[in-house]
Write a structure and sequence with these properties.
By secondary structure, the protein is of the alpha+beta class. The protein is 29% helix and 37% strand.
Length: 139
């Protein structure tokens, strides 16, 4: 088995920005020359998350609204009392969705559904430069 570690750099516009990295991930697999295996996509940082979604305008609006209902911005967070950076909700939201995702690939292609894309969701209150780690394992 071969293990290849790559990274993707992205720049977010801040809270609720959703960035499609499916093409970049596919390119990394293609460049690896591996035929089958898995790729783990990991957001380095505690206020970003990785998931899959149908990357279309309606869901790009619905997803942040759902997070706002589950983890409201306008309540008290202990994190904010400690650090005074007003992004306690960002940390909780990112933890809820999760920092990583594993996707299988075969014949050098991701095994995603027809309408399924890999996205990084920015939860922090400000724009950020993010490093997304790809660990590709296979043969």
């Amino acid at each position: 088995m071969t293990i290849i570690t790559e990274s993707i750099k992205i720049r977010s516009r801040g809270e609720n920005d959703m960035i499609d990295i499916t093409e970049s991930t596919s390119k990394a697999i293609e460049d690896s020359k591996l035929e089958q295996g898995i790729v783990t996509i990991f957001a380095s940082g505690s206020t970003a998350a990785v998931t899959t979604i149908e990357y279309e305008p309606g869901l790009k609006t619905d997803f942040p609204k759902m997070l706002s209902r589950i983890v409201p911005k306008n309540i008290e967070y202990e994190h904010d009392k400690t650090w005074h950076d007003r992004n306690g909700h960002s940390h909780v939201r990112a933890s809820l969705v999760g920092p990583s995702l594993t996707v299988p690939f075969k014949d050098g292609r991701l095994l995603l559904g027809t309408w399924q894309q890999i996205v990084v969701v920015e939860m922090d209150t400000r724009e950020r430069e993010r490093k997304i780690i790809l660990q590709i394992m296979g043969e």
